[in-house]
From TrEMBL:
Keywords: Membrane, Transmembrane, Transmembrane helix. The keyword Protein biosynthesis does not apply. This is Uncharacterized amino acid permease, GabP family. InterPro entries: AA/rel_permease1, APC_K+_Transporter. The keyword Cytoplasm does not apply. It is a multi-pass membrane protein. One of its GO terms (cellular component) is membrane. The chain crosses the membrane at residues 70-94, 115-139, 159-176, 188-207, 227-250, 271-293, 338-363, 384-404, 410-434, 455-473, 479-497. It is found in: Membrane.
Amino acid sequence: MCVYIVIGCPPVTVSDVGKRLLVGRKLRSAQLGETLLPKRIALPVFASDALSSVAYAPDEILLTLSLAGLAAYAFSWKIAILVAIVMLVVVASYRQNVHAYPSGGGDYEVATVNLGPNAGLTVASALLVDYVLTVAVSISSGVQNAKSVVPFIDGHEGWIAAIATLVLMSFNLRGVRESGTFFAIPTYCFMVAILSMVGYGLFRIVVLDQPIQAHSAQYGIEPDPDYAAFSGFLMIALLARAFSSGCAALTGVEAISNGVPAFRKPKSRNAATTLLMLGTLSVTMLIGVVTLANLTNLRLIDTGHSHYTLNGQRVEVVEETAIGQLAAAVFSDFRPGFYFVVAATMIILFLAANTAFNGFPVLGSILARDGYLPRQLHTRGDRLAYSNGIVVLAFFAIVLVLTFRADVTALIQLYVVGVFVSFTVSQLGMLRHWTRLLRTERDPATRSQIIRSRIINAVGLTMTGTVLVIVLLSKFTQGAYIAIIAMSVLFLIMKLIRRHYDAVGEETALVADEDRLLPSRVHAIVLVSKLHKPTARALAFAKATRPNTLEALTVDVDPEETERLRSKWEEMGIDIPLKVVSSPYREVTQPILDYVKNVRSESPRDVVTVYIPEYVVGHWWEQILHNQSDLRLKGRLLFTPGVMVTSVPYLLSSSDKAERRMRRDDAPDVRRTLHQ
């Protein structure tokens, strides 16, 4: 029988008020339905990463092509079209995923169910690494864009990115719906800004026939000597590298399939619609930006490899992003338009990391539920968000931005690998899913629908598998190997965690009634150092439990002190026998351990309960002055089979302050289950 006890709200403290201001009021578990998202909020929450990649994917294409000089720029629009085709295929494939697996496991669930646990863990490790990189790349790109408006950031990019990550973490700790509402306006502003810039720029160039030139159009490009001969294998390798960098535009597409449970009903249909909106907007903006860059003769260089030239001579130029240059050129006669585009881009790049802050904690929770990550990642926080997962993601992202100093070009080489691993394995899993269903399905209409879905996923598998090979070949030596190593290490860690949980579960499982048998006898031992109130309380408590045998035990480290204790013991008329253990070397812990083990060896079926009087103090420095030998002794006794350790607390006056400090940690709606 289970008895549920509801505990009411505790008094509110000053520190609790501070936490509420930061995170918001606590939500009951029953309020989870209130956090579900409509499509207009789900789009910026789950698609901001893919949408924001428009701000740096064209840059990475042009930067890579600049290694071969201006001649290679002729391939930029072709690469952009290839990236767009891949995105549309992936979006179509993931629309099948959200209908087939709406529980929120996404690629991990698809791979685990259809290909086995190892495939699922491969996908999970790839996605977890990619989510961390998403935060690092998005925040770093936002910082780089902000430099054109706020020059003092130059030289401090890493620390600024770390602070921005902490701010974003605090917003996400307030919950998915609240953070999504906050992020919706900047995301829609970015869409309006980019589409307006592309539309107005094309209108000026095509309709009004106005010559618009980017600021960098006046410069030539001196290629990297290694790629100066842009032909043969070098040309193929460079184009493959540019294509793989441009595929950064696809990151974040899988987040919607992981976040289906966060949508309002009908969940699958709303998620599929949001995916379609994401694909349409991303492709439109990406093609528009690359087209405008070609029409305005925009140039970008990979600093340190290719160089700007003017009249045949190298020149040093302050590098600006493609979006910044295009906005300045298109809105040359309307400066508010320029500032609007730059500001919206800067903000969306910071907020694009929000996609990872929604994907990583959910995936971490599912993995924790399955025993592959620590169980703490499975619990929800005050705002029904997976708070522990949010904090873990922020920590690793901060480590990355500080290590790489928020350098987007360096981080982008680690990027994309993980997401295409998950894309490819997921599509293979979906292919097996539809094939398995076809074996049993007999209805012609349903079979036709399954065949159509299988064809879509087969095309997706072919496309993403090809891109994965290209990405691995073109980026491995550029830094992708670091991401692969990180995935492998994470894979092994998760396997070891699962092995540990399985071993603990097997070891602690009840076997018939053997673990519910009562011990033959209970032998209670109360540890005594001196006769005072804590000792008296421990003796009284031990006596109240009515053990079969009860005795007090002290260690003789000072004969005079031991004799005074004996005399006082007899003087007080205590009816519990006091046993003295000698200690020639003045050691306390080992003689007690030896005595307890001896009691156990004499009666192996008995349980020995050791009662330790312990001070409860209110200040950390008081803890240093008390209880140290008790802590060491407890640590040793806990490893002794058949021995139970009970601390008998005695509250000193300073403990009142500590008790008041801890009240703020009490939940207003705590439900405890007592099994009887």
